[in-house]
């Protein structure tokens, strides 16, 4: 299979802990496409963990980096499967770029599942000090309309295996 079988990027979006990174990897493998994990790329560029970037430079700085990276990706000729950060939809300009340059997949999960997946994870600065199902629910409610607005396809990840979810996504494409 060609590395460039798609004319557009495939953006994997959704809340923290919805499985974006592992599902993006699987989809990229299946399609023999390049993969970009935005959070890891930002960590490498800053030589700092996401958590340290938030604490030492602030969320605003992180959002600038995130936007600049998305811009760069969309300008590239190499089409990639892109695992985005959960907050990518918070900037209207990002929503515009996602819609214009890619096929957007929204991974959905229940607050309860997100809670159990993330409760042993210290790497989510926005939830680290204040993790509860209620808080996850509240953040999700605030973001759902933005995810919905940008999505071309959505899929529940709560009770499915990664391989099955990736297959559903590839079938949609
Ligand atoms: C964030 C999600 C994180 C990371 C940062 C902010 C968010 O990515 O970009 O901590 O605002 O939802 P994941 O969705 O990969 O956890």
Fold blueprint:
Blueprint: E1 9-14, H1 20-31, E2 34-37, H2 38-46, H3 50-57, H4 59-75, E3 80-83, H5 92-101, E4 102-108, H6 111-118, H7 133-150, E5 153-156, H8 162-172
Helix pairs in contact: 1-8, 2-4, 3-4, 4-5, 6-7
The chain binds shikimate-3-phosphate.
Bound molecules: shikimate-3-phosphate
Report the portion of residues in β strands: 5-15%
Number of helices: 8
User: How far apart lie the N and C ends?
Assistant: 15 Å
User: Quaternary status of these chains?
Assistant: single chain
Which second-level CATH architecture applies?
3-Layer(aba) Sandwich
CATH topology: Rossmann fold
Helix content: 40-55%
Encode the helix/strand succession as letters.
Answer: EHEHHHEHEHHEH
Catalytic activity: shikimate + ATP = 3-phosphoshikimate + ADP + H(+)
Function: Catalyzes the specific phosphorylation of the 3-hydroxyl group of shikimic acid using ATP as a cosubstrate.
Enzyme class: transferase
GO molecular function: ATP binding; chorismate mutase activity; magnesium ion binding; shikimate kinase activity
Q: Could you explain the architecture of this structure?
A:
- This protein is an alpha/beta fold and 173 residues long.
- The protein has one domain: P-loop containing nucleotide triphosphate hydrolases (Rossmann fold, 3-Layer(aba) Sandwich), CATH 3.40.50.
- It is built from 8 helices and 5 strands; from the N terminus they run E-H-E-H-H-H-E-H-E-H-H-E-H.
- It has helices at 20-31, 38-46, 50-57, 59-75, 92-101, 111-118, 133-150, 162-172; strands at 9-14, 34-37, 80-83, 102-108, 153-156.
- A 5-stranded parallel sheet has the order 2-3-1-4-5, with helices on both faces.
- The longest helix has 18 residues, at 133-150.
- The two termini are 15 Å apart.
- The mean pLDDT is 93.
- The chain binds shikimate-3-phosphate.
- Shikimate-3-phosphate binds at residues 16, 20, 39, 50, 85-87, 124-126.
- Its cofactor is Mg(2+).
- One of its GO terms (cellular component) is cytosol.
- It is found in: Cytoplasm.
- GO terms for molecular function: ATP binding; chorismate mutase activity; magnesium ion binding; shikimate kinase activity.
- Keywords: Amino-acid biosynthesis, Aromatic amino acid biosynthesis, ATP-binding, Cytoplasm, Kinase, Magnesium, Metal-binding, Nucleotide-binding, Transferase.
């Amino acid at each position: 299979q060609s590395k460039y079988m798609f004319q557009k990027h495939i953006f994997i979006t959704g809340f923290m802990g919805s499985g974006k990174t592992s599902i993006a990897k699987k989809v990229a493998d299946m399609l023999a496409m390049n993969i970009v994990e935005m959070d890891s790329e930002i960590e490498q560029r800053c030589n700092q963990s996401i958590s340290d970037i938030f604490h030492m430079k602030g969320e605003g700085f992180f959002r600038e980096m995130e936007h600049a990276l998305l811009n760069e990706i969309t300008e590239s000729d190499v089409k990639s499967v892109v695992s985005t950060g959960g907050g990518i939809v918070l900037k209207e300009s990002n929503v515009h770029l996602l819609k214009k340059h890619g096929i957007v997949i929204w991974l959905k999960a229940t607050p309860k599942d997100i809670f159990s997946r993330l409760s042993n994870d210290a790497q989510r600065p926005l939830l680290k000090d204040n993790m509860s199902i209620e808080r996850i629910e509240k953040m999700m409610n605030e973001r759902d309309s933005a995810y919905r607005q940008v999505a071309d396809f959505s899929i529940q990840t709560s009770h499915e295996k990664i391989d099955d979810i990736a297959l559903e996504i590839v079938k949609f494409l």
